[in-house]
Amino acid sequence: MATVLIPAPLRPHCGGQSNAEAAGATVGEVLEALVAQHPALRQHLFNDQGKLRSFVNIYLNDDDIRYLEKEASVVGAGDTLSIVPSIAGGLR
Questions:
Q1: Edge-to-edge strands, sheet with 2-5
Q2: Running DSSP on this structure, what letter comes out for residue 53?
Q3: 52 beta partners
Q4: Is the Cβ–Cβ distance between 59 and 82 less than 8 Å?
Q5: Overall pTM > 0.85
Q6: What pLDDT, in 10s, does the model give residues 15-72?
Q7: What integer pLDDT is reported at residue 85 of this predicted model?
Q8: How far apart are CA 65 and CA 28, in angstroms?
Q9: What is the rounded distance in angstroms from the CA atom of residue 17 to the CA atom of residue 51?
Q10: SS3 call for 52
Q11: Most buried among 60, 64, 85, 86, by the most CB within 10 A?
């Protein structure tokens, strides 16, 4: 099982948890297992076509999955996935 770190803005959609355990051989499978446990997270992580939203960054341990094999990146027992939503804004 992998540990998924849940950022503060998404915690209300998973019972206030800061992390969750989810099984899967790939990042995509772990994320699917996570949203199966916490269905309210789906709309925040995936678009209507089932693709990971562009503003949601996922790190496998310390590596951005965009520079690995994306959702096909292999997850081992004891690995950590971090969900990092992009935050936009600027100075006024």
A1: 19-22, 2-5, 80-85, 56-60, 63-64
A2: P
A3: 46
A4: yes
A5: yes
A6: 999 999 999 999 999 999 999 999 999 999 999 999 999 899 999 999 999 999 999 9
A7: 85
A8: 11
A9: 24
A10: strand
A11: 60
Residues, the chain, total? 92
Both tokens of 5, joined, read 């770190």
Q: Are 10 and 87 in contact, with CB atoms under 8 Å apart?
A: no
Say which residues have a Cβ less than 8 Å from residue 74's Cβ, sequence separation at least 6.
25, 26
Residue 9, both tokens: 């803005």
Q: Which two tokens stand for residue 71?
A: 């959702």
Domains and CATH numbers, the chain: 2-85 (3.10.20.30)
Predicted confidence band at 86 (pLDDT cuts at 50, 70, 90)?
A: confident
Both tokens of 28, joined, read 């995509």
Give the CB-side neighbour count of residue 74, counting CA atoms within 13 A: 1
Confidence band of 10 (pLDDT split at 50, 70, 90): very high
